[in-house]
Amino acid sequence: MLRLKTLTKTYKTGDTALKAVDLEVPSGQVLALIGPSGAGKSTLIRCINRLVEPTEGEVWLDETELTGLGAGALRRARREMGMIFQEYALVERLTVMENVLSGRLGYVGFWRSFLRRYPQKDVDEAFRLLDRVGLLHMADKRADELSGGQRQRVGICRALIQDPKLLLVDEPTASLDPKTSRQIMRLITELCRERGLAAIINIHDVALAQRFVPRVVGLRFGEIVFDGPPDGLTPDKLTEIYGEEDWEATIEKVDEDEAESEGEAAE
């Protein structure tokens, strides 16, 4: 279980990105984090693994308080938190397989990784993951030869090969077309179910969040203003999170997508 207790982040400029956020994410639960730009979504995710240092509060992963760890203990704790980035964060000159295996850096040590001498069990797992996401045939391709959707699938494999307890996913569909966005969200949620993984997905597309994720948390000005199931995102609640807009159109889009999905399944 992940627990955030009065998590606060104030930058040196005086801007407060998070204001005493309390949040629990049970093991195996997938949660979508929504809100306008500047609401604190990315900051929250990065405070969990301390890519951004919280100003106050606590972050607990099971029985470990992450905010109290020194550098060595934090490196070990980060093995249990896989990160999937908006811009993929792949090494362009390396192959797909090498990028996936880089997810094992926290386990194999510097010299073995530098010489690319990974244990055979890690190599076998990398092949299994690539097969699962449909990229087995591209294992030897360089990362700079891939499309955006393919790069994101490599990023997913790299995170999963860590064998994490928690996935932190930062806008995984922001650079993708609508069809690929749906495929990536479906893949992430399916893999979390298969592996019993908890996940926090920072996503700007409300319709995707409503379609694929069972729990949605809405942030505004660094505070949680909604925490509930997707069907609780009424036009009034979306207005509270984002401001005035024709939210009925967004809700209709979700209904249309669900109907289309049911039609695809029937075929």
From TrEMBL:
<protein>
    <submittedName>
        <fullName>Phosphonate ABC transporter ATP-binding protein</fullName>
    </submittedName>
</protein>
<dbReference type="InterPro" id="IPR027417">
    <property type="entry name" value="P-loop_NTPase"/>
</dbReference>
<keyword id="KW-1278">Translocase</keyword>
<dbReference type="InterPro" id="IPR050086">
    <property type="entry name" value="MetN_ABC_transporter-like"/>
</dbReference>
<dbReference type="InterPro" id="IPR017871">
    <property type="entry name" value="ABC_transporter-like_CS"/>
</dbReference>
<dbReference type="InterPro" id="IPR003593">
    <property type="entry name" value="AAA+_ATPase"/>
</dbReference>
<keyword id="KW-0547">Nucleotide-binding</keyword>
<keyword id="KW-0813">Transport</keyword>
<feature type="domain" description="ABC transporter">
    <location>
        <begin position="2"/>
        <end position="246"/>
    </location>
</feature>
<keyword id="KW-0472">Membrane</keyword>
<dbReference type="InterPro" id="IPR003439">
    <property type="entry name" value="ABC_transporter-like_ATP-bd"/>
</dbReference>
<keyword id="KW-0067">ATP-binding</keyword>
<dbReference type="Pfam" id="PF00005">
    <property type="entry name" value="ABC_tran"/>
</dbReference>
<dbReference type="GO" id="GO:0005524">
    <property type="term" value="F:ATP binding"/>
</dbReference>
<keyword id="KW-1003">Cell membrane</keyword>
<dbReference type="InterPro" id="IPR012693">
    <property type="entry name" value="ABC_transpr_PhnC"/>
</dbReference>
